[in-house]
Design goal:
With 240 residues, this protein is of the alpha/beta class. 33% of the residues lie in helices and 36% in strands. The chain is built from 7 helices and 15 strands. β3, α3 (67-77) and β4 (82-87) form a beta-alpha-beta unit. The protein is elongated and about 65 Å long. The protein starts with 6 loop residues before the first strand and ends with a helix.
Length: 240
């Protein structure tokens, strides 16, 4: 789920100079955001659980737990994870591709070669996103798990503090994704009623006015969404 948002990257590399090189290559690219650095395999497992990255760039030869073992464990927690392996030894290539790595880059890492690998990640991510959209599904990460939510089940979405909450009849899902990012993945049935709310127009039962504030209410659901004065008339046109 990367269209409209940056691809979150964790670098797993025990050599500080190699870390700096990878960071210098990746940081200028708007599409990618480095969110963590792991010095060994065990640290990588912890960062994967904490941060739920979209992409891990991992050296195969790391202390405590090698890259292949660490990535195998990471994929069990996050099957949608994209992997780029780096190594000075080509003998590991078969093991790397057995884990469905997007690419395998030999050290010393060259900028042009890394960019080829990153382009593969971006293309694979966009392809996955389009396939999910064609099935009317969005993917979000919550508590280290990827959830696949059918658009028809979404009642409304709200931004509360630093979290985004997706309301369905069966469950509320929390994610760090912004409303703008999610809006890019929704279809015409969804309308932004307020800077902090997106609603499923098909789920609305009625609108109410309390004081100077408008609210959208939903069929068989107790929670409600705010509607700004600026968006109220446009929402009425959408509903009519």
């Amino acid at each position: 789920m990367f269209i409209g948002s940056r691809i979150k990257v964790v670098i797993a590399e025990d050599n500080s100079e190699a870390q700096d090189i990878l960071m210098s290559f990746i940081e200028p690219i708007d599409t990618f955001e480095i969110i963590g650095i792991a010095d060994d395999g065990e640290s990588l497992l912890n960062l994967n659980m904490e941060l739920s990255p979209d992409l891990i760039i991992a050296d195969i030869d790391m202390p405590k737990l090698n890259g292949v073992e660490a990535i195998s464990a990471c994929l069990k927690m996050n099957p949608a994870l994209k992997i780029i392996f780096t190594t000075a030894y080509d003998k590991y290539a078969v093991k790397a591709f057995d884990l469905a790595a997007v690419d395998y880059v030999m050290k010393p890492v060259k900028k042009e070669r890394l960019y080829v690998a990153l382009d593969k990640v971006k293309s694979a991510s966009e392809s996955t996103n389009k396939q999910q959209n064609s099935k009317n599904i969005i993917t979000i990460k919550m508590d280290r798990i990827s959830y696949f939510i059918h658009l028809k089940n979404i009642i409304f979405i709200e931004r509360e503090n630093r979290k985004t909450i997706i309301h369905t009849h069966n469950q509320k899902y929390e994610t760090n994704e912004s409303l703008n990012t999610l809006l890019d993945q929704l279809d015409k049935r969804f309308f932004r009623t307020h800077r902090s709310f997106i609603v499923n127009i098909h789920a609305i039962s009625h609108l109410s006015l309390e004081g100077e504030t408008y609210f959208a209410h939903f069929k068989n659901y107790p929670d409600y969404a705010h509607v700004s004065k600026l968006q109220k008339n446009e929402l009425m046109r959408e509903l009519s």
